[in-house]
Amino acid sequence: MPPTRSITVRQATSDDAGPLITVLVEAFLDGPVADWLVPDLADRRTVYFRYFKLVFNHGLQHGRVDTTDDQSAVAIWYTRDQVPLVESTGHYYEVERATGRYAPRFLLLDAIFETHHPHAPHDYLAYVAVDPRHQGRGVGTALLTNAHQTLDAANRAAYLEASNTRNRDLYQRLGYRQGAPIHLPTEGPLIWRMWRGQPTDGTPAPFPTDLLPHRSPL
């Protein structure tokens, strides 16, 4: 279904916390990664609310959080130029408090993502979520297109991880190239690494081959 009106993108603030944390929870509640992180459905919503509250506030403090005028979507970006932001020990304790007995999986996922992160300077799209009630209306595309225009003006690349083939195909239509996938351990799902470099000959830039050495995750 096409959007019924124009979509205005703006930078989020702490006043948007309640609605946007809910959007993150609802958008990520179902799917192969959610099943892997929190297999118990009875626990998942509670754990996700605590976790995405931490994620949202972290994005406000250390990155950039974009949203739409109706708060139906949210994207959390981080600038990655050389070495990643090294978190304090307190941050890992916060993740453990938020996720409880599921903390090992959450911390392992962060560590795996960090290990496979490209070294080339880029902006990292850590999370993008659209309220399920607004999906299929071009809201997510509008949110990302706005960010891509800013990146293109600054000659910046973008990187993200896609957790399903539907999202992977959408990112490819938006100019991303797929890298080697990540297979999460203990029968976990596939994750597709996606890179949107600046084209030099009219075609999308190839996925970078250099990787960061293993470092502490976000």
From TrEMBL:
Signal peptide span: none
Origin superkingdom: Bacteria
Gene3D superfamilies: 3.40.630.30
InterPro entries listed in its UniProt record: Acyl_CoA_acyltransferase (IPR016181), GNAT_dom (IPR000182), Trichothecene_AcTrans (IPR052523)
Domain N-acetyltransferase: 61-197
Transmembrane segments: none
Record PROSITE patterns: GNAT
Stated name of the protein: GNAT family N-acetyltransferase
Phylogenetic placement of the source organism: Bacteria, Bacillati, Actinomycetota, Actinomycetes, Micromonosporales
